Amino acid sequence: MIMDSVLIKNANIVNEGKITNGDVYIEKGVFKEIAPQISAKSPDVHIFDAEGKYLIPGVIDDQVHFREPGLTHKATIETESRAAVAGGITSFIEQPNTVPQATTIERLEEKYTIASKTSYANYSFMFGGTNDNLEEILKVNPKNVAGLKLFLGSSTGNMLVDNPEVLEKIFSSTDLLIAVHCEDEQTIRDNTAAYKEKYGDDIPIEFHPKIRSEEACYLSSSRAIELAKKTGARLHVFHLSTAKEMELFTNKIPLEEKKITAEVCIHHLWFSEEDYKEKGTLIKWNPAVKTAEDREALFEALLNDTIDVIATDHAPHTKEEKDNVYTKAPSGGPLVQHALPAMLEFYHQGKISLEKIVEKMCHSPARLFQVEKRGYIKEGYFADAVLVDLNAPWTVNKENVAYKCGWSPFEGTTFKSRITHTFINGSLVYKNFKWYDVKNGKRLTFTR
């Protein structure tokens, strides 16, 4: 539903570390006025009475895999952005390991073209680095591309960047934010070989965190950070999963001054190795879900600002693919629809405040990536906003899962909170399990 002007009344606005009751007026896709009371400017204004619900900025998810082009039997930009807005995610940054991979400017722009026609949410795409595409990397415009993605382990296709000289050259040559997947490939190969010798292909899933071990994560993360310090590169480490890696990061300086930043994903905050028995390969991710102690250390690091942002690493596969034996079951799972409800569940448990959730899911991704005029409810900013009812329980089931793959690791979970309305660039795109045919997403730009 495209709307020129919107007035949201009686909302508890969660923004910049405070909760204030008030009204928000949106005009031509931009927050125009935020005040205790605002009257409708004309009879054409669309008025929404929030009735005391919580209004937060749209969530920015800095790591998703929407599978288009080439893997569209699993997902598409259209289907997954649709699921994302149901979860309050209004902007996403998608990864380059599609088919073909986004490792040339031409391939990257093809993805932007698809999104411009089909995305419900705002979008950006990571450019992919390889051992032999430095020339293409140097062509990337940092003002309209989120960053450079390097797989330092667990890559698909030819995207494993494992030549130390090439890696140093990339780190030294680009001003782009470099986002990395850190797991040491040799450690994983050795561990896999040892377990295959004992079990064949049908390795019990509970050994996944032993194969993709703490050591594999720490070795790779510490090397990447060492290289970033040596070259002065701007490094962002994706999906941390171990307590040990927390010693590699700091909370002693403000986010804007950090050259090395860190992300944690929903599944590493929610699940632990104890859940493999029930969930099996549905919670097989790379890096692996590890111990309850790791999970608690990640949560503590999130709260004390050692970890800077929360993301999903949304990476859907079909149920048939996931039902394979260990060595053939792909890693990854769908999460965008349920990430914010999961974090709000932690709020209900007293583990995190609403203000901190908004900081880590909205404000900090915008600051870290220097996203232009998003991530806040501020006058002059693009009007991405989400209304949340903290007391409207619902249970995840096959009927309300919006992912193309048709399943969720949260099936059977009852969440206390519900996303009731999602506004993107000032227009209502989602309301209470109903989507409007408004593909109002725009290409993200960056103030670099």
TrEMBL record:
Cofactor(s), by name: Zn(2+)
Pfam families, A to Z: Amidohydro_1 (PF01979)
Residue intervals of the Amidohydrolase-related domain: 54-429
Top-rank lineage group of the source organism: Bacteria
Hydrolase listed as a keyword: yes
InterPro entries, per database record: Amidohydro-rel, DHOase/Allantoinase_Hydrolase, Dihydroorotase_CS, Metal-dep_hydrolase_composite, Metal_Hydrolase
GO MF term (any one): metal ion binding
Any GO BP: purine nucleobase catabolic process
UniProtKB keywords: Hydrolase, Metal-binding
Gene Ontology terms: cellular component: cytoplasm
Protein task: Catalyzes the reversible cyclization of carbamoyl aspartate to dihydroorotate.
Similarity comment: Belongs to the metallo-dependent hydrolases superfamily. DHOase family. Class I DHOase subfamily.
Stated name of the protein: Dihydroorotase
